[in-house]
Amino acid sequence: MKTNSNITIKDIARMCNVGVGTVSRAINDDPGINEKTKEKILETVRKYRYVPNTSARNLKMTESNTIALIVCGVGNVFFTSMYDDFQNELEKNGYDFFLDSVDNDVNIPAEAFRLSKEKRLKAIIFLGGWINPESKSLLNINVPFVFCTVSQTIEGPHPPCPTVGINDITEAKRMVDYLCDMGHRRIAIIAGVEGDMAVGGGRLIGYKQSLTEHGIEVDERLIFHMKKDIDEFTAENGYAVTQELIASGLDFTAVFCISDLTAMGAYRAIYDAGLKIPDDISVVGFDGIELGDYMFPRITTMVQPRHEMALESVRIVSGLISGEEDISDAVFETELLTRDSVRKLN
Amino acid sequence: MKTNSNITIKDIARMCNVGVGTVSRAINDDPGINEKTKEKILETVRKYRYVPNTSARNLKMTESNTIALIVCGVGNVFFTSMYDDFQNELEKNGYDFFLDSVDNDVNIPAEAFRLSKEKRLKAIIFLGGWINPESKSLLNINVPFVFCTVSQTIEGPHPPCPTVGINDITEAKRMVDYLCDMGHRRIAIIAGVEGDMAVGGGRLIGYKQSLTEHGIEVDERLIFHMKKDIDEFTAENGYAVTQELIASGLDFTAVFCISDLTAMGAYRAIYDAGLKIPDDISVVGFDGIELGDYMFPRITTMVQPRHEMALESVRIVSGLISGEEDISDAVFETELLTRDSVRKLN
DNA sequence: TTGAAAGCGCTAACAC
DNA sequence: GTGTTAGCGCTTTCAA
């Protein structure tokens, strides 16, 4: 039997012979209320399955205790493992958690602004996507926020908020340093899409820097970009590009894939060509996702401290909320995880 | 320069010397409004970065055009690839799309009810999680809804809505049939957690049915359950359980993993034990995620037609919205994808 | 401890 | 075409 679904606080009040204010107090655990009255009201609430209207509540309330995680690319495996971290840490700090997924093509700052008003947010954590640090909408958001692993334009302007992430240039350089140390000199790279000035661009720079420092001339022909018509950073893209790399007939002994998923695609392409990893070609990835441990051979990679990055993001917004000034960016280091996909030359 | 972020429709009206109604018409593309006035208003709106308050709007509006996708387990790789399908198809049909992530432990029907009121939803599509089909809250939701790939209790009561999915029993049986056809008789299974009456339970039943039909006695010792202290259906869980399977010293030639991710974990355990796939042990997965194609050897699996399932879900809610009656469940068949992880015996 | 009433920002019905 | 106004359902003073 279908009960009427449009019960309001008024209905409950009428049924209990009390005022709406009393009902409000009851459902919100307000201290100044008679236990008896409260119990009676809550019983009616349960009986009629009354659920307060969030819009009305948000509209009226001057503030909430909610911190939103606005993520661009919800499906990204790199992010998914962080959701729990954010949620747990936020709730441990007494905040409510709200996950909001934005599309790549929407105006992220505008959406953030809208959401901050709608939900009376206490703060915002941005995860993923590219946000123009000079966006005027960003200035409009009047709650504290932080960028977590949000790629920024290389050496571009700083956003009006703290950031949490890694130095893509430095860390990519360390990865390539390792390859060089292992004796490789003909190192190809599967970089981001052409013109990428964010994550992909930074890692490409690091790649070049490392080679140069090791006295290896950068061979532009060994630089391959992901295809624009396939989702970036996917195994599928890595597969397609690596096939081209192999078909090029160029001489190389190692491939630096700028993400682990890309490396997984590279694995398949190399295997399909009848070659062996790491015997014929060494492959490294980046990010340190769990799945890399289940590949054959295990992918050598740079592990981003995702857990710590999530925690630090929460710490920063908490500080921001309590008025702390001078909060600086948190730049994390990645950890070189040498597994089995690199062969030592000579 | 920070503009005041609390501009309301009133402020815009005052600045433009018009009534709030006119502003409302302008920002909502109402037909009956002078183009000049509209332009002037929209300019002011842009200038002051005014964004309508969604709560107020939702509170007032009698209906929206939004269909929500309520997903339990946002990070589940099986679901992530469906988001785009839902979004595209929904928008193609003129609906607005809203993705809502719910935690495993929340009361999904109650959250759905709340959301339906808050956003004045047109309909709801549930994806993932376990929903008690007899939940009273479900009856409370007064907008059409559909269960997509939501596991239900085996042979339990039917939910008060159409469902879209596969028959776990039948399809799992087909998978095991294939193993039997390939000459395997000692087949182990990595099933869901103990007592799973949903997806895992159904697939386990299919496994037993197949064996029985092939005149193979079910050896309970070969039935392994995923560990409760590790996330279900993950590679990590598959790894741990398969290690136990191998350590058991039992004789078996094939393993049926009830998900591809589980199979990836099994791969690693088998490899670690110095065994080869499929030479020593054959492994099959289930679901048909892309990543299975990047493993060595490629995982033989049953592919769920996720794309079609998403489309059908949208078709069903559309029908429900336009008052169609007699909409029956959509039961899809999976496709056996024979890749390279099974060896033919004899 | 409680009820009455104001009003959050917006849309829609009604008047002009 | 446009302004005015009545609520949408709720929280929160302010009195009682």
Q: In a few lines, what is going on in this structure?
A:
Chain A is α/β, with parallel strands linked by helices and 346 residues long.
Describe it:
- Two copies of one chain form a homodimer.
- By secondary structure, chain A is an alpha/beta fold.
- The first copy, chain A, folds into three domains: 9-62, Orthogonal Bundle (434 Repressor (Amino-terminal Domain)); 66-166 and 306-332, 3-Layer(aba) Sandwich (Rossmann fold); 168-304, Rossmann fold (3-Layer(aba) Sandwich).
- Helix content of chain A is 40%, strand content 16%.
- Chain A contains twelve helices and twelve strands.
- Chain A has helices spanning 9-16, 20-27, 35-47, 54-60, 77-92, 108-118, 136-140, 168-181, 199-213, 235-247, 260-272, 306-321; strands at 66-72, 96-102, 123-127, 145-148, 163-166, 187-193, 223-226, 254-257, 282-284, 301-303, 330-332, 335-337.
- The first copy, chain A, has a six-stranded parallel sheet, with helices on both faces. A four-stranded parallel sheet of chain A has the order 7-6-8-9, sandwiched between helices.
- In chain A, helix 7 links the parallel strand 3 and strand 4 (145-148).
- In chain A, helix 1 (9-16) crosses helix 3.
- At the A-B interface, helix 4, helix 5, helix 6, helix 7 and helix 10 of A face helix 4, helix 5, helix 6, helix 7 and helix 10 of B.
- The structure holds a DNA duplex (16 and 16 nucleotides).
